[in-house]
Write a structure and sequence with these properties.
This protein is of the alpha/beta class. The chain has helices spanning 29-39, 54-64, 108-112, 115-119, 132-145, 161-165, 174-181, 188-202, 240-253, 258-272, 285-293, and strands at residues 2-6, 20-25, 45-51, 69-76, 83-88, 94-99, 123-126, 148-151, 169-170, 206-210, 216-219, 224-227. The strands form 3 sheets. Strands 7-8-9-10-11-12 form a 6-stranded mixed β-sheet, sandwiched between helices. The longest helix is centred in the middle third of the chain and has 15 residues, at 188-202.
Length: 304
């Protein structure tokens, strides 16, 4: 559950400042991505863990209302659902502290009992917001069952080369790409170098390095290059990366080439940052297509 408060600026260490507009909204990286896939028109299933508490009830109900398959979501007694404390400044940037709660109880056994769901799925997206054992089991099972295997290495944790070798796609942001590659990422050239280094580690994966308002750098056999972002007035960037990933994988499983899928995903993320909240900000398919259809749509990038 995301708990938000808005501030004019981020406080310095030890400083107390006045905020406003406290609110809460269902979040979580995996849930946001599942929500995005479903909202953009593809069936989605979720594997995860929440507490037997009011936050867990609300988060499960929010996904169920969109038709997300929740047979893989377990309810844990005696532990709180995962919670994120999010501070938003006047520019829409954020600082986030996460208490994983029930996410830290997800096991490899919880994942493996959903093997039939993996076999029925065209793509599996894994994040690092649960245990390492659960993430490893997910990547391994996705690879074994032939699903498009996608790793979003967030929140960042060290990832073994073996995990990367199981991936068809790795989708880090610039900070995560820097940590995975050991190279700084601060412009398009360095994003390209980091993507190549991560590919060397993985041996086979395609890379999409998301660059915030500047768009995404793709490194694939089909296309390698920059897909620019869409210039908008951002009010809240929480969930933008998850919106991108859900939209991107949605279009890939529909048969789109990576360049087309990335353009669609950049448009979806651009709409999301003009709204408040994570799942509440994710656009519909018709909204994204309407933006892409505008004559003035140019995908102008904001430099890093």
């Amino acid at each position: 559950m995301d708990l938000f408060i808005e501030v004019p600026r981020f406080p310095a260490p030890g400083e107390a400042i006045h905020g406003r507009n406290f609110r809460r909204a269902p979040g979580g990286k995996g849930a946001n991505q599942a929500f995005a896939v479903a909202r953009l028109g593809q069936p989605a299933a979720m594997i995860g863990a929440v507490g037997q508490d009011a936050f867990g009830d609300e988060m499960v109900a929010n996904l169920a209302a969109l038709g997300v398959n929740l047979r893989g979501v377990v309810r844990r007694a005696g532990i709180a659902s995962g919670t994120a404390m999010i501070v938003l400044d006047a520019t829409g940037q954020n600082q986030i502290v996460v208490a994983n709660g029930a996410n830290d109880t997800l096991t490899a056994a919880d994942v493996n009992r959903m093997a039939a769901q993996f076999r029925a799925s065209r793509a599996v997206i894994t994040q690092l917001e649960t245990t390492a054992a659960a993430a490893e089991a997910t990547l391994r099972l996705a690879r074994e069952t032939g699903a498009l295997t996608v790793l979003n290495p967030a929140p960042f944790a060290p990832v073994p080369d073996e995990w990367l070798a199981w991936c068809d796609w790795i989708i880090p942001n610039e900070g995560e790409a820097a940590k995975l590659s050991g190279l700084p990422v601060n412009d398009l050239a360095s994003a390209a170098a980091a993507a190549r280094q991560i590919q060397i580690r993985s041996g086979r994966a395609r890379l999409a390095v998301t660059l915030g308002p500047a768009g995404v750098w793709l490194d694939t056999p089909e296309y390698t290059g920059h897909i620019p972002g869409v210039r908008v007035a951002a009010v809240d960037t929480v969930g933008a990366g998850d919106t991108f990933i859900g939209a991107f994988i949605t279009r890939l499983v529909e048969g789109a080439e990576p360049r087309e899928a990335a353009r669609f995903a950049c448009a979806a993320a651009a709409i999301a940052v003009t709204r408040r909240g994570a799942q509440a900000s994710i656009p519909t398919r018709s909204e994204v297509e309407a933006l892409l259809a505008r004559p003035a749509f140019s995908g102008a990038a904001t430099p890093l």
